[in-house]
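F.,

This is the one I mentioned.
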């Protein structure tokens, strides 16, 4: 097995050799009854899937895609049946499956094929994929933590006395323990139930909404709930409400609440209890009377949860002739080609084309998957989609809690949801009948999963997933396509359609370069806001327009340096310099998050003379606020928006023009549609152009073009000012001309000359160990093994650019694999062999290897 980054992997492959228990089940073999075996995927990083036996009494119900309860090395897991067969394994006697957890499959055969592909292509295991795909509530294991659920109003769940009889003794016992303890480890559940029938009991309680399985710590978040007020169904009809209000005899404050609610519901849809009471200047008691009278109803739900809408299709717009032409072309191409690329300049209305295509698929009764980078999944696009398709639309992203995940999983499985808008993980939902996958902003590198395995690319996985359905074309969309996709389009492998003007022929923003080297003579560095940019901001604000200032570094200043000896404070655990955060008055490691007090004395020479270098968003915010004391200034970056709700909330504030100047990192550029932005400032273009990565030209172009694309979307009066020293950099000329093909021509030549993607396939192997020498040596041994395949080009091993993270040393190598069939799997074979050798050697047994295919 290749990757080894799951801590459950420290094992030898001994399950297959374990002696089977002698039980009655096995004695039945002598009687000649049929036997049934199952290949089962368990959510662990195992070298392969193992086999269990289905006991006789479960044979009739066993089916592919069902969950089962199995034991592996003394622990219990939920697995998924991948394959059933009758021939007994020859070299070992399998253990029995304890129980089946479902009566109908929760995973489709199509998904199982997808998992196999993903595990193979991304050098992961099917268990890794299962772990990523299946909601945690579906995956009980010995490591699970079971937590008491909350009621609608945020109170702990309790069992009503009159329901007691519905519960089995064991269920009741466990529910009671949960009410006292709030959360239980699986081992504790085992003790409470004395080790019997654990899964089915826990599952029953989950089904009843009493408890849920805690997500792994990393994903844990506190769900935000709020109470929403609406009219009782009896009064949702306007006529009935009218009669009620006209004949009102109750207290006037109650009437006020009702009138306000009617008004607010028109504008906003769902009304928050807090907002309603505040506006009505009424008390909770008054509201309660109305609830008791069953005129109003209160519902507590997660604030991310969508309101229940009826499904409808409402296409209340017409395409411009350019859009219509593009749509016709697209439809034609999509008939011939599995993948098509739509390149439309910013604000050309690509989204409207997607809507038209979605409409057609919906009418044909099939499902649609609409993918976006996680951070671009804002209420803006959700609203746009719901406006056209109402309750047909479901949204799937990492903010979902375990219950919501299961709920959506089941709805998709039952084909009750027609359109899913989601981030890459939505690909892992059990679609029945997909008829279209849209990958919007397809160039975005956040489509790539970084950690843990499987490190899949959402776009590329979508392309494969689409082939598993009958007639499911994949549409990639972007103003600035990835070089890989554009290359495939040029080569005729993908369909290709262009939309080269903005909707309503609105002009593209004018892009001007602001040569900083001309002004540094008068103003000392660093220059945050040049006089020219300051002037433009003044003009924009005077005209009641909005401004976006883009800087791709967060914090106050990215590092400080000793003026005497050049020493730079670094993180103790990671080989990175510390960023100064003024609001916290601390130094922060951006890799592991460790905070340090300010350092005022140089560790190397004892000097107190430090200089802060470069600038981040925090410092810009400070400078802008000082320059424009009357403007409403906000900053949007990882630090300022706590959680992802904050991000969305800030976008809404900006959208409703409650913010004049928005300063942000690349968070602000993802496909957002603001009408009133007239000025975009790119503060440090040099910083974008000076990376040592073969994709730097492409990336810098995409970022600048995308952020520029937020300007002048409605009236064409947008202006972009780029602050830069190196004004002759070719990428800047391409951005100025909005000339994607020229950028492509230049970059693709480099890629060809140096044999980078799309001309080769890249694989990055990273070896981690707390001792740098061990990590390096393991990498060297791997590199030697890879010499068996002379067609591979192995770069390295070398210390990773950041050679130490969280106390582990990182050594990596980059392998260029020719794009021939079978090369990747041949390479994988060698990696697996070498890894097996390494792991059987005591010195290297703890080396962790992670593999990243097509790294971005
Ligand atoms: N046919 C149309 N009818 C009405 N409004 C339209 C039409 N086409 C585009 N628009 C409006 O123009 C604006 C820009 O369109 P949209 O957001 O779809 O552009 P885009 O191509 O997706 O841009 P970007 O790549 O920058 O995200 C939106 O506000 C959209 O509602
Ligand atoms: Zn660190």
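My design for it:
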């Amino acid at each position: 097995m290749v990757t080894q980054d799951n801590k459950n992997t420290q094992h030898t492959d001994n399950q297959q050799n374990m002696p089977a228990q002698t039980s009655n089940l096995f004695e039945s073999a002598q009687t000649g009854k049929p036997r049934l075996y199952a290949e089962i995927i368990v959510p662990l990083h195992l070298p392969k899937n193992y086999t269990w036996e289905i006991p006789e009494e479960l044979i009739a119900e066993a089916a592919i895609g069902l969950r089962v309860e199995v034991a592996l090395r003394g622990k219990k897991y939920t697995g998924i049946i991948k394959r059933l067969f009758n021939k007994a394994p020859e070299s070992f006697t399998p253990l029995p499956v304890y129980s089946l957890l479902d009566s109908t499959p929760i995973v489709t055969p199509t998904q199982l094929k997808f998992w196999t592909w993903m595990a193979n292509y991304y050098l992961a295991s099917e268990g890794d994929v299962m772990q990523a795909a299946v909601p945690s509530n579906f995956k009980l294991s010995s490591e699970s933590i079971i937590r008491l659920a909350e009621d609608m109003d945020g109170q702990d769940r309790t069992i009503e006395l009159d329901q007691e009889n519905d519960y089995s003794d064991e269920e009741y016992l466990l529910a009671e323990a949960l009410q006292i303890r709030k959360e239980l480890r699986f081992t504790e559940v085992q003790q409470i139930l004395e080790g019997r029938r654990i899964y089915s009991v826990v599952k029953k309680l989950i089904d009843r909404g009493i408890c849920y399985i805690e997500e792994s710590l990393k994903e844990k978040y506190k769900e935000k709930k709020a109470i929403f007020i609406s009219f009782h169904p009896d009064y949702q009809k306007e006529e009935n409400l009218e009669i009620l209000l006209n004949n009102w005899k109750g207290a006037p404050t109650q009437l006020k609440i009702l009138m306000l609610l009617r008004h607010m519901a028109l504008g906003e849809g769902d009304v928050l209890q807090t907002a309603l009471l505040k506006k009505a200047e009424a008390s909770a008691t008054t509201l309660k009377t109305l609830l008791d009278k069953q005129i109003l109803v209160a519902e507590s739900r997660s604030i991310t949860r969508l309101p229940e809408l009826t499904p409808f299709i409402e296409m209340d717009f017409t395409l411009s002739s350019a859009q219509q032409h593009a749509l016709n072309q697209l439809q034609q191409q999509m008939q011939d080609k599995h993948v098509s690329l739509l390149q439309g300049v910013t604000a050309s209305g690509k989204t409207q084309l997607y809507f038209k295509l979605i409409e057609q698929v919906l009418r044909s009764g099939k499902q649609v998957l609409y993918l976006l980078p996680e951070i671009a999944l804002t209420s803006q696009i959700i609203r746009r989609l719901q406006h056209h398709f109402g309750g047909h639309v479901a949204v799937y992203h990492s903010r979902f809690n375990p219950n919501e995940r299961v709920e959506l999983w089941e709805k998709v499985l039952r084909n009750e949801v027609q359109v899913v808008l989601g981030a890459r993980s939505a690909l892992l939902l059990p679609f029945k009948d997909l008829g279209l996958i849209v990958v919007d902003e397809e160039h975005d590198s956040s489509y790539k999963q970084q950690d843990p395995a499987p490190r899949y690319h959402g776009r590329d996985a979508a392309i494969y997933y689409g082939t598993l359905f009958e007639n499911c074309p994949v549409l990639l969309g972007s103003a600035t396509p990835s070089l890989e996709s554009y290359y495939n389009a040029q080569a005729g492998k993908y369909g290709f359609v262009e939309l080269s003007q903005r909707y309503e022929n609105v002009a593209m923003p004018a892009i001007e370069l602001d040569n900083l080297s001309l002004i540094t003579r008068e103003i000392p560095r660093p220059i945050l806001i040049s006089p020219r940019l300051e002037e433009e901001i003044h003009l924009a604000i005077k005209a009641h327009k909005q401004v976006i200032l883009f800087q791709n570094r967060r914090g106050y200043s990215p590092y400080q340096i000793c003026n005497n000896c050049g020493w730079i404070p670094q993180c103790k655990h990671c080989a990175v310099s510390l960023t100064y955060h003024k609001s916290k008055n601390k130094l922060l490691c951006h890799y592991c998050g460790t905070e340090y007090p300010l350092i005022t004395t140089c560790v190397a020479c004892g000097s107190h003379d430090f200089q802060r270098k470069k600038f981040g968003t925090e410092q810009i915010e400070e400078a802008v606020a000082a320059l424009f004391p009357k403007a409403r200034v906000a900053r949007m970056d990882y630090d300022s928006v706590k959680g992802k709700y904050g991000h969305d909330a800030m976008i809404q504030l900006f959208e409703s023009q409650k913010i004049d100047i928005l300063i942000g990192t690349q968070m602000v550029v993802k496909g957002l549609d603001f009408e009133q932005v007239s000025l975009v400032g790119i503060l440090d273009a040099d910083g974008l152009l000076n990376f040592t990565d073969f994709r730097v030209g492409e990336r810098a172009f995409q970022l600048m073009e995308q952020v520029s694309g937020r300007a002048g979307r409605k009236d064409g009066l947008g202006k972009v000012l780029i602050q830069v020293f190196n004004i002759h950099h070719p990428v800047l000329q391409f951005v100025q001309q909005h000339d994607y093909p020229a950028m492509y021509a230049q970059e693709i030549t480099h890629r060809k000359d140096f044999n980078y993607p799309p001309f080769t396939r890249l694989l990055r192997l990273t070896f981690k160990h707390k001792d740098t020498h061990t990590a390096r040596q393991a990498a060297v041994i791997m590199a030697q093994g890879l010499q068996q395949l002379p067609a591979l080009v192995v770069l390295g091993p070398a210390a990773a650019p950041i050679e130490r993270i969280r106390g582990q040393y990182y050594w990596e190598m980059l392998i260029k694999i020719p794009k021939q069939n079978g090369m990747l799997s041949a390479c994988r074979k060698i990696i697996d062999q070498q890894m097996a050798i390494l792991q059987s050697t005591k010195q290297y047994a703890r080396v962790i290897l992670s593999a990243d295919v097509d790294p971005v």
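The first strand starts at residue 36 and ends at 41.

Talk soon.
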